[in-house]
Amino acid sequence: MIKVQQLTKIYNKQFALRGLDLEINYGQCLCILGPNGAGKSTFIRILATLSRPNRGDILVDGTSVFAAPAAFRRKLGLIAHATFLYPELTARENLIFYAALYQIANPDTRVDDLLKTVGLAHRSDDRVRTFSRGMQQRLAIARAILNEPEILLLDEPYTGLDQSASQLLTDRIVELKTAKRTIVLITHNIQQGYQLADKIAIFREGRVALECDTGAMSELEFQQKYNEIVTAGGKN
Amino acid sequence: MLIFCLLVVVIFSFTFDPGSEYTKEAAPGILWVAFTFSGMLGLNRTFSHEVDTGSIHGILLAPIDRGAIYLGKTIGSFIFMFIVEIFTLPFFIVLFDLNLENHFLQLVTIIFLATIGFVAVGTLFSAMTVHTKTRELMLPILLFPVMIPVILAAVNATGSILNLDEWSKILGWIRILVAFDLAFIVLSYLTFDFVVEE
Questions:
Q1: Domain ranges across chain A
Q2: ipTM, 2 decimals?
């Protein structure tokens, strides 16, 4: 279990997170929703160990992720709006480079398989800077699942994707859900989030305003609750 | 980097009378001005491309000790800078009409050690300043004061070599360079994680 305790992050004297508490079970798909500036991306960045909290901790099976961050990062995959790819390298070179960082056995085979999976095998030797946004995001999906992560973090991954790339991403998420991988998804699309998630959290002003299983209320009820929290500033 | 370094050496060579005593006195300073300024150009680009494209986060997400990223970047910067320096050196010797006799290797040793110190601190400071708006300006402002011991030792040792002094006269400067290199490599390795983390 991933247990988030009193997570607080301050940027330039502004609170991005204010003592956030959250629990994520293994194999669960958690969807985080909330208005801009609610602290969603800050939370994902801290969970990915790209940022350190001012206070609080994230415990995985009782151990702080900041005690051995490199070991925790081995279990992680992150897809964000930015692709983290090198534009001057080819698609294959990018994946081979990341495979080396993750010390993946038989990297050539793994990279070939992934390029086929994301539908980029025919462009594998083209430089990433020649790719469209959708193609770059497909490659970013391949990069993120290269190490077969136990925990996949998705920070607004659908931004800028065309329909086929969106479907590809949804298919991968469903596939990972079936394989009982832990998924944390940030999205502004309530319908999409509700349909994919086992559990939903609404962030507001750096705190969790609502945390519930998707089975606890219908999509319509949830939509109403979301509007109530975001527009009127209601709390659960 | 290479073109800039060569240009500095060539422009200064026009200013001084080749082979004169005054040129011999000014030459070590000119050489290290060329090396440090061109090195600064390289250091400014150590992280900027990866930060601009966002790929820096891909590396920071890797399950490796972040000190390894620092060492990799430092070694990369060192190789580029050392190649530029070694390529510039013959032009410098010819244009300033210097006679090194059998002291060439000693000069290369000084360049080697001073460059290690320069990139060891420069890589850390480059990571610090890369997120600032005026990074090209911030890096030299922060780096040069810290680099004073290295530049002083390098200029003085180079001067001694050009005067064809005994090895024992240079040894003190070499000790300073080695101590600086070791101290800052260890310090930078240990602090790099905190520098790159938000």
A1: 1-75+153-189+196-236, 84-148
A2: 0.87
